[in-house]
Amino acid sequence: MADIKTFHLPDLGEGLPDATIVEWHVKEGDYIKLDAPLCSMETAKAVVDVPSPYTGTVKKLHGAPGDIIETGAALADFEPDANAKQRAEAESTGHHHGPKKAETPAPAPAPAKAATADREDEGTVVGAMVSGNTVHVEQAASIGGVKAVPAVRALAKKLKVDLARVRPTGADGVVTMKDVKDAAANGSATLGAAPARAVPASAGRHLAPELPEPGAAPSRTAVSLAGKAVRTAPPSVQASGQPEQLKGVRRNMARVMAEAHANVVPTTLVDDADLHAWIGKQDITARLIRAIVAACKAVPALNAWFDGKNLTRTLHPHVDIGIAVDTEDGLFVPALRNADVLDGAGIRAAIKRLRTSVEDRSIPASELSGYTISLSNFGMFAGRYATPVVVPPTVAIIGAGKLCHDVVAVMGGIEVHRRMPISLTFDHRAATGGEAARFLKALLDDLSAPN
């Protein structure tokens, strides 16, 4: 009897609970070598390639592109090649493999039914979910006559491909990842290039009976034909959109924000930095980071980590600033390391490097954690003041609003000054109001310096 080995999804980040299959690089029956790319997985951090833990034949793939696989759940089955060199203890590669169990010895695999019974109620979910080692495959949803899983739709959006004009090759007319990539490569389905292909008349007949061709749509009014106010149904009765389960970056963002909301006591102070004394053109972001460094040196209490369970505080001698970067996939917060020893040119070069690696999803997980304080420069889009979210274990986050010109009272009259709105949110368990106010003053004072 063949010796079949099951490879469980390792922890691809720092305690990430799951990942989404983007693409398999092999199919069942293929022969693969040790450390060759097995599949691409999207995590909360980035899209990463998972290497094969064996040299041998792929017997089974547990999931399809778009499926969410829980860390520790079965990912693929292999029949190792007895004549090939294998890694010692192939399933131990420095990551956690195998189903997660709290402080218990590794038991023999239990039947899927029993594993499901041992799990707590997982609630109602939309799309793929994992129970024990069983992956429930997410069904391709039909929207606008096009069948595709959410991951394929996300890829099409990213590559600016019109799904309605992509030729599907998947079973039952489903558009696959390869279909989207091929369309992007040959330019046959560019968004807005030409009218979308017509949906066959038979499409969607199982959802509703055929109706005669409608005439011109009546104009929408606030009252009915009887002269009464038109009432709309509450959201719980009917939804016009297609619900899709959050994946990857957005999925992790939802978890992080919920955890922060539950575990932080946030308080926000706001004020305006007066930039009227600036001489010549200056790098606003570099000045803002320099001001944060100055404030951290003046009041170290906000450049810290706080452990709410053990009530311990760690003050940092260095300043690593988490820079919030907004993308279509969700929010990334890469760390600008050693900001306290960088000059303006070094800051600009480091930020450019971080933004580029975020945009092409090549940034390593190590650069998305460990920062000591955060910055959200939301003012580059809109907004003056905000209550940005403090993410544990950090203690504070600075929000920079949109630059504006304000009328300012001065001795002998009024002047128009350029000012930057600043919001400081801090965890009041770890810092006092006085410390936060002194921190904000130090930041404003540095920003107001001529250069």
Automatic annotation (TrEMBL):
Top-level enzyme category: transferase
Give the span(s) annotated as Disordered: 81-122
Residues covered by the Lipoyl-binding domain: 4-79
Domain Peripheral subunit-binding (PSBD) spans what residues? 147-184
* Enzyme Commission number(s) from the entry: 2.3.1.-
InterPro entries registered for this protein in UniProt: 2-oxoA_DH_lipoyl-BS (IPR003016), 2-oxoacid_DH_actylTfrase (IPR001078), 2-oxoacid_DH_E2_comp (IPR050743), Biotin_lipoyl (IPR000089), CAT-like_dom_sf (IPR023213), E3-bd_dom_sf (IPR036625), PSBD (IPR004167), Single_hybrid_motif (IPR011053)
Question: Which branch of life, at top level?
Answer: Bacteria
* Chain intervals with Basic and acidic residues compositional bias: 82-94
Q: Which cofactor does it need?
A: (R)-lipoate
- Asked if the record carries the keyword Cytoplasm, the reply is no
The record's keywords, sorted A to Z, are:
Acyltransferase, Lipoyl, Transferase
Query: Per the record's keyword annotation, is Kinase included, yes or no?
Result: no
By sequence similarity, the record places it as follows: Belongs to the 2-oxoacid dehydrogenase family.
Q: How does it assemble?
A: Forms a 24-polypeptide structural core with octahedral symmetry.
Q: Mind telling me what this protein is named?
A: Dihydrolipoamide acetyltransferase component of pyruvate dehydrogenase complex
